[in-house]
Amino acid sequence: MTLFKFLQTGARGPLTGFAWSANEWVETQGPLALCRNGAHLLRPHDLAHWMHEELWRAELDGEWIEGADCVIARRARLTERIDGWSGRDGERFARACHDRLGARLAEASDPGLREHLANYQWAVNWHIERKNAAMAGYVSALGLAQAAKDPIPLEAYRRERAWQSEWLVHELRLA
Amino acid sequence: MSVRDLVSLSCKEIVELVTDYRCDALDTADRVRFEQHLFGCTWCMTYLKQMDRAIELIAQLGRPAEPVSVPIDTTKLAGLFRAWRASEGRKRE
Amino acid sequence: MDPEPRSEDRALIAALRAGDEAAFVAFAAMHQGSLMRLARLWVKNEALAEEVVQETWLTMLESADKYEGRSPLKTWLCGILVNVARNRIRKEGHSVPVSSLGDPEEPAVDPSRFSPPGVPWEGHWWPPPNPFPEGPEAHVLNRELRADLEEAIGKLPPAQRQVIVLQDVEGFRCEEVSEILGLTTTNERVLLHRARAKVRATLERHYEGGAS
Question: What pTM was computed for the model?
Fold first, then answer.
């Protein structure tokens, strides 16, 4: 399996503060449990749901279970940092999200919808200026989902995230 | 509120869930949505960390800043215990 | 709070019932401080708090044979203290309002911190919150911060104050605090949520130099 992990700056887990080190195995004791126990790793199509400051390649060893938009593993380690995400490629991603909003705006005629999309474009741009690719992705997914005609916006939101994951895999040559 | 009905939780809703999250009271589906929001939304992550800092500092209120000025009166406690024993003794008679 | 050593708790109770004064004094001295702190959540001065705590010790000794070990001794003890304190208040005629959760609509964070309804950006932080300072000193209470936090906790409605002190100062878990105060765990979490939110806001004002 090709696996990844998003972490905060300094290779720390954002929710736990756990300090990861490249190539060092981390093992969890006790039964693996979704959301509660085990190393949290991402398959390519999971990526967009968990964007954060640093992107790393990772691998697992031994027991693993299917998580929600992730896998949960007994043993895991980071292998290689994907530096581009924290720099140029992150910015390209954020601009791609901005342009996607623009494309939707171009085909929208309803003034309320146009204003909505323009506002979200402005917000994405605000994050681009502050080099926060993860936020740009989140905001654009939200804006586009709310603009979609789906009765349940969640499906549209997940479709956007799926598009974002594919973009990352393709453009950052992750697979 | 059913989390699953929403596109993704807005920040205003997320902040109302942080205590349930830290008390481990969210069901799995809600927990996933909460965590996914936090990874994408730096601001709510900041809020959670602020909350954790508040809790970390409050915990230190239980440790006195200065040595206790009035030492614990163990004689009083011993007296209390003896009085109780005495009354227990009287009850048994 | 380790819930496991119930055997230690039961051993202590057995020692007390066997007349072991030294065991009682050691245990009581260890917990006197935190019981005093708790008593002050209900009564208005040190002297009254001391009376409540004395009565709590006596009640504990008198009901020692009723301790079953279902919960940790300290939890049971605090439950006794709460009853003693409440009875004291009732007797003295200071009726504290029945545990109210506060305004049912009260959100944890001031709604003005988020963009309002009708705006497409609705419900999101605006302006964004600033991270609290980091570094080793940032994790330690200094005198000024201690005063600010104590003041903030002192201003909380009584039920919120009781919950946050029991949970975040004294270290009891959600279920234990609920048991001690006679609340459902859901209500306990609501009270804790509101109390913590106010303390967090105090901390934010402290770091931002008074701007709210």
Answer: 0.84
pLDDT digits (tens, 9 = 90+) for A32-70: 998 889 999 999 999 999 999 999 999 999 999 999 899
pLDDT given at position A170: 97
CATH 3.40.50.300, applies to C7-91: no
**A69 touching B (Cβ < 8 Å):** yes
In angstroms, the first-to-last Cα distance of chain C is 35
Residue C100 at interface with chain B, using a CB cutoff of 8 Å: no
B21 interfacial to chain A (CB closer than 8 Å): no
For testing the chain A interface, which of C115, C121, C122 should be mutated: the one with the most A CBs within 10 Å? C121
Both structure tokens of C123 = 């419900």
What is the pLDDT, as a whole number, of residue C151?
Answer: 94
For chain C, list the contacting chains (3+ Cβ pairs, <8 Å): A, B
Domain boundaries, chain B: 1-65
> Angle CA(A55)–CA(A60)–CA(A61) in degrees, nearest 5?
165
Q: Look at C121 and A146 and tell me if their CB atoms are within 8 Å.
A: no
Residue boundaries of the structural domains of chain C: 7-91, 111-208
Give me the CATH code for the C111-208 domain, please: 1.10.10.10
Q: How far apart are the first and last CA of chain A?
A: 10
Read off the pLDDT band of C103 (50, 70, 90): low
Looking from the CA of A104 toward its CB, the CA atoms found within 13 Å total 25
Farthest-apart Cα atoms in chain A, separation: 56
Task: Give yes or no for a contact between C192 and C164, defined as CB atoms under 8 angstroms apart.
Answer: yes
Say whether B28 and A141 touch across the interface (CB within 8 A). no
- C200 contacts: CB under 8 Å, gap ≥ 6: B50, B51, B54
Does A145 touch chain B if contact means CB atoms closer than 8 Å?
yes
Tell me the H-state helices in chain C.
6-17, 21-39, 46-62, 73-91, 143-154, 158-164, 174-181, 185-207
Q: Is C65 exposed, middle or buried (0-12, 13-18, 19+ CB in 10 A)?
A: exposed
Residue whose C-alpha is closest to residue C207's, from C156, C164, C145: C145
Q: Which residues of B touch C (CB under 8 A)?
A: 10-13, 15-16, 18-20, 23, 25, 41-44, 46-47, 49-51, 53-62, 64-65, 68, 72, 74, 76-78, 80-82, 84-85
